[in-house]
Amino acid sequence: MSTQLTQEEPPHKAEQKPDPLVPANSVQVPGLAGARLAKTFRALRHRNYRLFWTGQLVSLTGTWMQSVAQGWLVYLLTKSALSLGVVSFAQFLPVLLFTLLGGVAADRFDRQRLVIFTQSASLVQAAILATLTLTGVIHVWHIIALAFLLGTINALDTPARQSLIHELVSKEDLMNAIALNSTAFNSTRIVGPAIAGTLLGALSAWVHSQFAIETDTATRIAVGVCFALNALSYLGVIVGLLLMERHPHRKNNTHESVWRSLWAGLSYARRDSRVLALLSLMGVSSVFGFSYMTVLPLYAGEILRVGPQGYGLLMAAAGLGALSGALLLASLGNYQRKGFLLTIGNFVFPVMLLVFAQSKIFALSLIALVGFGWGLITQNALTNTLLQTIVPGELRGRILSLYTLMFMGMLPFGSLQIGALAEKLGAPVALTIGATICLGFGLFVWWRWPHVRRLP
Question: Where are the compositionally biased (Basic and acidic residues) regions (predicted)?
Fold first, then answer.
């Protein structure tokens, strides 16, 4: 009789335990958006990640606006490629000096609170820069000092912010979340420079015509507005972080000395040839590839002669290529030939940089930067993904701080070398040398660490 009752009862699915990493009120992406779209943006079903990602869109737009405006302001004040290199050096030197300590902090303390603190500090930095610029007292040494301050903040912020993503989504959505984070970074890389370029061109022209002041002064006012808007944009990510549902912070071993913690991360990276190869690719690409941004104002002003609007479009073109690459990666899901796709990106971006270096045609330069952006983000995002897949969870903050060190910490050397070479040999020769080195190192990795291109 009991058997009959069991057969008559409707079947029940096995009870599933909730994932502690997923907020209770996570929502599913609507089916009306289509299966492909739902797959591409599936990490957004988690409320905490949606808040984080939306805040990033607002904040990163302002960050890119400030990056464009700051480069143009330095060029306006000095007309010097070396000065552009010095400012970039000052901004990224603290990442070289302090980012490993930032990784230790990310593994020890509450990452959510740590990111709230760093984003608030960035807001203050942007507000000071805006005030000095709008009041007309700005000098290059002010920009250098404030760039160093922002770099110090970023050294703490970046490892914590990247490690925080792991706490906002379920395990199966982690790779998609990383790709969507790259999508946010690169979509704002299009929008931010475009807004900044428009403000630098249109707003400065309006101020010049309405108030009959010098063109350089009008441009400085437009630059100050970009800085002020960036300060306001930080509120987006701060509010998003404050609205998140809190989870108990799991403390790691804080009794271990800072130096022992640092050494544990470094030793792991040195022993694992996969990690060593991936980090080496990032370092070389940063020094000799991504440093192209240092001389981009020089290209816009003196080689292509397209002014601040064209400068914004050049920045946006690289962002468009990177955005397309990030969206492609997000749509691939758990793609099983990540190493091979990473290798393609590693070869594409230096070839496109070589084309850009020799181009004197604005349209060709835009096309080359689109290809450059696609190749670079394909390499960088897959490096981030593979590192998070390879390393154990207790070392995640420290290994990601090494990733940050290679990506951002090496930029001071890249900025200095390309600024000095451009000053003596010209920007096209400087870029050609850097692109050739990137391509050569890619071939070396192909030969020395063939297992990298076979990573799943």
Answer: 9-18
In the chain, % of residues over pLDDT 90: 30
Domains of the chain from N-terminus onward: 43-243+255-454 (1.20.1250.20)
pLDDT at 35: 61
For residue 275, the model assigns a pLDDT of 86
Q: Is the pLDDT of residue 22 over 80?
A: no
Res 262: pLDDT: 77
